[in-house]
From TrEMBL:
Protein name, entry field: ATP synthase subunit c
GO cellular component annotations of the record: plasma membrane; proton-transporting ATP synthase complex; proton-transporting two-sector ATPase complex, proton-transporting domain
Transmembrane segments: 12-31, 52-77
Organism encoding this protein: Oceanirhabdus seepicola
Function: Key component of the F(0) channel; it plays a direct role in translocation across the membrane. A homomeric c-ring of between 10-14 subunits forms the central stalk rotor element with the F(1) delta and epsilon subunits.
Record key words, sorted: ATP synthesis, Cell membrane, CF(0), Hydrogen ion transport, Ion transport, Lipid-binding, Membrane, Transmembrane, Transmembrane helix, Transport
Compartments reported by the entry: Cell membrane
Topology class, membrane: Multi-pass membrane protein
Family named by the database record: Belongs to the ATPase C chain family.
Residues marked Reversibly protonated during proton transport (site): E61
Molecular function as annotated in GO: lipid binding; proton-transporting ATP synthase activity, rotational mechanism
Amino acid sequence: MEDVFVLGMRALGAGIAALACIGGGIGTGIATSKAVEGIARQPEASGEILKVLIIGGALSEATAIYGLLVSLLLIFVGL
């Protein structure tokens, strides 16, 4: 009985941790749209905007990868 409960809670936790991937995608999309707006308004600053966009996108996607890693660990470790 307890094993079924633990497996169910691990699966639930993995599903919740996988939601971090959605947040990373939304964050990257919003940042990209704002960068395009900034370049459209001030084309001479496109190099600086691109640098900041790449750093921000990397940090945003790193968060999504951490959530995916946690969900995979919850599912596969301890089986």
